[in-house]
Amino acid sequence: MVGSYGPKKEVYEYKSPEEEFPSGMLQRGEFKVKSVFTDDDKNEILSWEWKLEIKKDWKD
């Protein structure tokens, strides 16, 4: 078992509340993120890196 939930046939979905990003030119840019999935014993199951781009206009 990984995490606090045992296996089951039904899909478990969680949607977090919507958040508002800080506005302004200083908050725009590209941010590198590393996500890690661990179990209760802190064993790393999966990790991946991705980027988040905050732009004023998405036409580019």
Automatic annotation (TrEMBL):
The UniProt similarity line reads: Belongs to the Rho GDI family.
ATP-binding as UniProt keyword: no
- Which biological processes are named by the entry's GO terms? Rho protein signal transduction
What's the name of the protein?
Rho GDP-dissociation inhibitor
Q: Which InterPro entries match?
A: Ig_E-set, Rho_GDI, RhoGDI_dom_sf
A GO molecular function assigned to this protein is: GTPase activator activity
* Keyword hit for Cytoplasm: yes
Record's subcellular location:
Cytoplasm
Spell out the Gene3D superfamilies in the cross-references.
Coagulation Factor XIII, subunit A, domain 1 (2.70.50.30)
Could you tell me the keywords of this UniProt record? Cytoplasm, GTPase activation
Q: Which positions, given as ranges, span the membrane?
A: none
Q: Which GO terms describe its cellular component?
A: cytosol; membrane
